[in-house]
Amino acid sequence: MSTDLEQFYEIFFEESSELLADMEACLLRLDVNSPDLEDLNAIFRAAHSIKGGAGTFGFTDMTEMTHMLETLLDKLRKGELEVRSEMVDAFLKAGDVIKGQLAGHRGEGKADPEMAAAVCEELKRLCEETQAAIKSSEEKNAVVSAEAPRAIETSVEEQSPPKDELRITYRIEFNGGDMTDTGMENLFSNLKLLGHLENLTPENEKSRYRLKLTTNKSEEDVWETLAFVVDPGNLKIETEAAGKTDTDLASADKESKQQVSAEADYGFFPGAPAAPNENVHADAAESMQQHSVESEKGESQSASAKSQTGAKATANAAAGETSSIRVSVEKVDQMINLVGELVITQAMLAQNASQLDPVVFEKLLGGLNQLERNTRDLQESVMSIRMMPISFVFSRYPRVVRDLAAKLNKRVELRTIGENTELDKGLIEKIADPLTHLVRNSLDHGVEVPEKRIAAGKPTQGTITLSAFHQGGSIVIEVSDDGAGLNREKILAKARERGLSVHDGMADQEVWSLIFEAGFSTADKVTDVSGRGVGMDVVKRNIQSMGGRIDIESALGVGTRMSIRLPLTLAILDGLSVAVGDQMFIVPLNNITESLQPRAADIKTVSGQGRVVQVRGEYLPVIALHEIFNLRPKVADVHQGILVILEAEDQKAALFVDDLIGQHQVVIKSLESNYRRVNGVSGATIMGDGKVALILDTTALVMSSQQEVV
Amino acid sequence: MSQSQSVATASSIDPINSQMVNEYLTFRLGAEEYGVDILKVQEIRGYDAITQIANAPVFVKGVINLRGVIVPIVDMRIKFALGDAEYDQFTVVIILNVAGRVVGIVVDAVSDVISLAQEQFRPTPGMGSVIDTEYIMGLGTVDERMLILIDIEKLMASSDMGLMEHSFN
Questions:
Q1: Is the CB of residue A600 less than 8 Å from the CB of residue A639?
Q2: A48 tagged catalytic
Q3: Which residue among A24, A48, A122, A591 is the active-site one?
Q4: Can you point out the beta strands (E) in A21-82?
Q5: Does B49 touch chain A (CB under 8 A)?
Q6: Which residue, among A89, A64, A77, A84, has the nearest Cα to A130 in the 3D structure?
Q7: Of A41, A172, A260, A596, which has the maximum CB count within 10 A?
Q8: Is A704 on the interface with B (CB under 8 A)?
Q9: Separation between Cα atoms, residue A682 and residue A703, nearest integer Å
Q10: Sign (positive or negative) of CA dihedral A504, A507, A511, A512
Q11: Euclidean distance between CA atoms A102 and A96, whole angstroms
Q12: By CA distance, what is B65's nearest residue in A?
């Protein structure tokens, strides 16, 4: 392997991962009874691109696997055989294998060659089986065409014979000056797979390659093969002449609209050969009009094909340009920091300027106003960079649900609502695990088996709904099912068994929250899916560590809904600022239950040292912040200051501070990045005046108070 | 001559062995003059509002906001027990980039940037100083002045500064 290619590895890995994810999404979307050709094509293209890349880099295991995939897919999209659900399963498995192989090449894991071989066999069998079936019985063929949608039917008839006539010749020019010989050989052999290749490169000119390729593949396919190796900016592909002449083709279009739509459906003839793209548009539109009596499906297909050719035209025009760039999170965070700093500076300027005479400094003040607007816009747009749609998480669940439902013999439909709801990238990464757990739980414990559902008068197919939406300053993610619901009696019985203090009069909410206890499970049997009782407590802890909370609503026999409420971003915290001496601290708002000024009589001491305060019959330990941080407080007596009642991990404590200052949304900064961890402090933030304020670690404070008093 | 040979063999000044001339930012602590590798210096700024940190060593004055980055500030005068730790308009904070972190040190004044050639280095004599000689790269002589060259990276990363988490803590 030449070392020159190594710099492209990372790009290939990332691209392949994305392609695999796309492929999986398409597979899951695929309706076995009426497969969408667009989807099949998309899957095929994904497999093909991976194969091309893997071939270039010499990852033969991946090439083999994708080649098998491709062979079968090619037959499917040409309508030579019909899609069956076992094929989809095989494809999904193949996708997993490729993922494993990819990880193996990345050095992050080990591919499983046995599994790969098994899947390969499976694909081969599916491929041959159907081939044999087609050959042996014409009956089968009839079934295929009868079941396949019209688009496939026409394409089977009209597409297969003129396949050879439709060979297109491409003139390819690219700059390969920095490529090694092995790289070139690989590329040439890959191109030769596509069709007839002629090397027109002049002997004496090594850097500029000129090739002539005659193939029945689309320009896109050729492009993909090349783009892995050649810098797209240097790559030029021109279509020369087709097997058919332009006029032939045009008349063919006019004569047979059927064929045009079939071609357009295929989506791999971007623009009729050598014909301007507008023509295709017109044709496609025309065909659409004339076929308006046809089924809706055909119409929408030609419409989508039309938009696709349109998009492709622009894509080709802007070849080399990309619609997105990969930027490291570090850079984005740095930018967010700088913008935050800019906002503070701007606020400082505004404050200073407010003391100026508005008549004399009219222009300056006007400029400052504009600066304020601009900084706010800038801040908003910079913050939005970190935001990602939640579909990044949701998209993994169709697969989870599909696999698990098959395993448990349940019929489940997954619905997702609000996939475009955006939240912070950091949260996206952290929410995936707890959410997976909740979805699995809903599937395993929530949705019943079909027989039970019928008995309960419900449709056999259960529904799990994932939804996300914004509410106030937070984002709510809900996992709901129409299953059995939580069984109150069962939970209470289990809790008693485990020696938890419960009684029958507990509110539903309290009963439901019992399932978050560690080791709590009401499942009758432990499966490898769930039921061990580990998990819900972890889910709750994970969500709390993100600054969120989880609520359960449930009705027996109707279903369960788990709602996770998270702050919009990890980087911002709602806090109450408190003063002790001349220092300011931030207390996270979600840990505060109340603040009060105690009466002197409510303060008691325990064994002369530990102080407690009586709040509505409860004795809470008093934590004096100035004692912990060795500060000189303005007030020494507890009853002159303020007590902030904190609650963390079901423990309460009263924090004694001089004064409350106000409520802020603060940006969390790490102390550890340049200093070290400080007990009782979870981070720092920068206040409006540019000063640093420490954010208190309420959990640690409350816990330390428990140890002192007990 | 024998002196310069011993300089060359001293492991603590290995980086100087190459013929390159190194530049040092010099600053005053009390009456003494110190130097740190200029490449470790990010910027120099005045001393302003510092937020204290609970239970930190006395020489860790606290943290400041440096354009959105929380930076701990160490007062070298307290650390080295040199001069009175007074804070006036001449007090300067040198922001350093060491061991992948940003740390600020408080010094009495920043003098200038000095280029030192190899022959201007002298090895550190053994002395019962408050500073462990381990953190001193050597002594530099410029005319009549003597510069104490600190291996600032080693010093800041050391456990007795308490700036960084150490596994044995």
A1: yes
A2: yes
A3: A48
A4: none
A5: yes
A6: A84
A7: A260
A8: no
A9: 14
A10: positive
A11: 10
A12: A692
CB atoms within 10 A of CB A374: 12
Q: Where are the beta strands (DSSP E) in A472-568?
A: 474-481, 549-555, 559-567
- Reported ipTM: the value is 0.71
Q: How far is CA B75 from CA A318, A471, B47, B65, in A?
A: 57, 47, 11, 16
Q: CB neighbours of B120 closer than 8 A, spacing ≥ 6?
A: B140, B141, B142
Mean pLDDT value across chain A = 73
Task: Tell me if A168 sits within 8 A of A175, measured CB to CB.
Answer: no
Tell me, yes or no, if B115 comes closer than 8 A to chain A by beta carbon: no
Q: Of A129, A57, A51, A58, give the one whose Cα is nearest residue A94.
A: A51
Residue of B nearest to A672 (CA): B164
Cβ contacts (< 8 Å) between B99 and chain A: which residues? none
Q: Which two tokens stand for residue A132?
A: 């044999």
Identity of residue A404: L
DSSP A444: I
Q: What DSSP letter does each residue of B91-137 carry, written as one string? A: -EEEEEEETTEEEEEEESEEEEEEEE-GGGEEPPPP---SS-GGGEE
Helix (H) / strand (E) containing A307: helix A296-317
Q: For the residues A448-456, what does the mean pLDDT come to?
A: 86
Largest CA distance in chain B: 52
Alpha-carbon distance values, B160 to A93, B44, B131 (Å) = 56, 24, 11
Residues of chain B with pLDDT under 70: 1-20, 83, 126-132, 165-169
Residue A60: exposed, middle, or buried by beta-carbon count in 10 A (0-12, 13-18, 19+)? exposed
Interface contacts A/B by beta carbons within 8 Å: 77
Residue corresponding to tokens 């019209």: A150
CA–CA distance, A229 with A54 (Å, rounded to integer): 11
CB contacts, 8 Å: A675 with chain B? 53, 63, 70, 72, 163-164
| Residue A270 one-letter amino acid | P
Q: Does A470 qualify as catalytic in the annotation?
A: no
Angle, helix A150-159 to helix A296-317, in steps of 10 degrees: 60
What pLDDT band is residue A282 in, cutting at 50, 70 and 90?
very low
Q: So what's the pLDDT on residue B95?
A: 92
> Mind listing the pLDDT tens digit for each residue in B120-151?
777 777 666 555 677 788 888 888 888 888 88
The 10s digit of each residue's pLDDT in A497-530 is 877 777 777 778 788 888 887 767 666 555 555 5
CB neighbour burial string for A540-575, b if at least 16 within 10 angstroms, e if fewer: bebbbebbbebebbbeeeebbbbbbbbbbbbbbbbb
* Lookup: tokens for A708: 């002192």
- A474-503 pLDDT, tens digit per residue, is 788 999 888 888 888 888 888 888 777 777
Is pLDDT above 60 for A247?
no
Percent of chain A with pLDDT over 90: 1
E-assigned strand segments in A99-207: 168-175, 195-199
Nearest to B135 by CA among B155, B162, B157: B155
Comparing A270-274, A441-445, A480-484, the range with the smallest average pLDDT is A270-274
Exposure string of A203-227, with b = 16+ CB inside 10 Å and e = fewer, is: eeeeeebebebbbbbbbbbbbbbbb
Whether A162 has a pLDDT exceeding 70, the answer reads: no
Buried b (16+ CB within 10 A) or exposed e, A606-640: eeeeebbbebeeeebbbbbbbebbebebebeebee
- A229 sits in the region (left: phi over 0; alpha: psi -120 to 50; else beta) called alpha
The answer to whether residue A283 scores a pLDDT higher than 70 is no
Question: What SS3 string covers A240-269?
Answer: EEECCCHHHHHHHHHHCHHHHHHHHHHCCC
Q: What is the DSSP string of A149-171?
A: -HHHHHHHHHHSGGGTTT-EEEE
* Interface contact B51-A583, CB threshold 8 A: yes
Listed residue (A689, A653, A685, A688) closest to A669, CA to CA: A685
